[in-house]
Amino acid sequence: MNEERSKKDGGGEKCYAFPNRPTPGMPVVIDETRCTGCNKCVTICTTDVLVANPEKGKPPIVMYPEECWYAACCVGECPEECLTMRHPLMMRVHFKNKETGEIKRT
Ligand code: SF4
Ligand code: SF4
Fold this sequence. Notes:
It is a single chain. This protein is an alpha+beta fold. The protein has a domain at 25-88: Alpha-Beta Plaits. The chain contains three helices and six strands. It has a two-stranded antiparallel ribbon with strand order 1-4. Strands 2-3 form a two-stranded antiparallel ribbon. The chain starts with a helix and ends with a strand. Residues 27-28, 44-45, 47, 49-50, 68-74 line the site of one iron/sulfur cluster.
């Protein structure tokens, strides 16, 4: 019975997960030319936005971008400094000093 059910459910076959394509946001961008695939960013990410690449040494995969907290822990953890935060538009507010022209971010 269990064996039959296992076959019916595709038991024993590999299951793959892919990033959520329809999600428009990409909270972190990885410079793939510099990433060593150490996965330190994956380990520090408490919400599991990033998952390790199944190919060893390759950059992690941004699997669940909509779960990102934008706290940039992964950016600070990366020894190669190859992660960049890409905040959504509504978080890109800045203020401009009318007299000096200086731009400040919140
Ligand atoms: S900013 Fe935080 S939640 Fe978003 S990917 Fe980096 S560690 Fe994960
Ligand atoms: S911490 Fe940096 S070098 Fe290591 S896997 Fe993440 S992006 Fe790549």
